[in-house]
Amino acid sequence: MKKPAFSIVKESLALALIGLFIYLFIFIDFGSFQIDAPKSFLNLNTIFLSIVLEAIPFILLGVFVSALIQSFVSEEMIQKYLPKNAVIALFPAALLGIIFPVCECAIVPIVRRLIKKGMPLHIGIVFLVSAPILNPVVFASTYYAFQSSKEIVYGRMGLAFIVAILVGLAVYLIFKNRDQLKWTREELVGRTVSSEPVKGVSKWKETLFHASDEFFEMGKYLILGAFIASVFQTFLDRSLLTDLGSSEFLSPAIMMAFAYILSLCSEADAFVAASFGGTFTAGSLLAFLVYGPMIDLKNTIMLFAFFRAKFVFAFIAIVTAAVYLSVLVYQQVIL
């Protein structure tokens, strides 16, 4: 698999910058530097770096799994193991997160690759919204954060499963599995030629090529999303949120907006939600815990990069309506 010289230079430069960043982070004592900057900008820098450093390991996991799918999973294999009935296939797709413990950052490249390999759009979307919540790591962190409120723990898992099914069904009914991905010229050409592996290139080497390509492609959108999220976190007046926290109808919507802006990793968001326990209703905490991993600022930018804009807007509207209405029903019936 021969790469253009420009691509090699670009990736080499990116690797050098990452190496420089790691070197400075480990060996340079920034405490000795006196930076005369407003506290808010220092806070923005801290939040930005924390989001990026928290997300990068999961992005690496996601692009590597995506590359493995590209190299070792065939379209025929996906078709073989998927239930033929479009509605029945929603249920096993929602449970895939149990064996794929990935967060909302890592799931985007995986789902994109699966759809390119032949997975139906609505099944991929169910996996996209369910996997960041319905996995053992998130269950354990939520259980630990809400040890005295087990209804939040099981409510999060149950609502995530129900919402994922509703979202997948809505996507199926609206889009009928029409292609909603953005394809590059190289990918379109690749769809018309033989999918035989390139001679002289092992599947593992091909996997590494795909992983490096996707990492740099996804990384720029992660950085942009992390910067926007850190700006909101720094300059948003959080007292406005607490003033509305006791409303049964407004507080879930407020916490959903808060989850979208904060863009927390699903493995850690339960501890942030627990800190709002004395201010917001249980229903609004569930809205925060279910909505954030399904859609936030980071993965919105990634979705716009790889899916058609019309589909992304529709997807956001569907997820928002499904989570909000499900939480309202849950508050009336269970809480």
TrEMBL record:
It is a multi-pass membrane protein. It comes from Metabacillus indicus. It holds the Pfam family ArsP_1. It is found in: Cell membrane. The keyword Thylakoid does not apply. The chain crosses the membrane at residues 12-35, 47-73, 85-111, 123-146, 158-175, 218-236, 248-264, 270-291, 311-330. This is Permease. Belongs to the UPF0718 family. GO terms for cellular component: plasma membrane. Keywords: Cell membrane, Membrane, Transmembrane, Transmembrane helix.
